Amino acid sequence: MRNHSHPEASISCPTCRGTGSLPKESASEYTALIPLSDRRLRPRRTCIKITGAVLLCLLLFTLLLVFLFPRSVHLSSTRPLIFPTIAQVDPEHNTVDLVLNVTANLTNYNFVPIIVKRVLVSPSYRSQVLDEKVIFPDAVVSSRSTQRVAVPLKLHFMSELAYVNFWLFMVQ
């Protein structure tokens, strides 16, 4: 028979007492034949692994926020004055109809492309809202770019803005 002794401490195995086999009646009591003082059972670098996993999750979460968090979309115009393409003045009923074609720049600051489904336009004159119009341009603006969008407007002025009517009538 071979002697199965522990090579580092040169003592016999306490489980099999150096015989190399376990008795049948005590074989079901043992789940592992590794002594509790063995170095292989001690956790190694557990703190480093947990810290690394937490830092990796924080990095991935931060990158996800930076690239996928929605940013605002900016609508601006490069023309300070907008002139009508068609102006119809009716001095009898004191009304003016204007057809305007406004071009605006739509800037996307996101890292993903956007689709503009609906734009609400509220033209105003001297802090008075003239009309509200919803347009549906269906414009696709690619990521981090600017695209021009044409906004056609038709404004109808009635008697409450008679000074505008008179001014437009005098211009024609």
Automatic annotation (TrEMBL):
Q: Where is this region: Disordered?
A: 1-23
Membrane-spanning intervals of the chain = 47-69
Magnesium found in the keyword field: no
The question of whether Mitochondrion is a record keyword is answered with no
Pfam families, A to Z: TMEM106_N
Describe the location of the Transmembrane protein 106 N-terminal domain by residue ranges. 9-46
| Keywords carried by this UniProt record | Membrane, Transmembrane, Transmembrane helix
The name of this protein is Transmembrane protein 106 N-terminal domain-containing protein
- Organism listed in the record: Paragonimus westermani
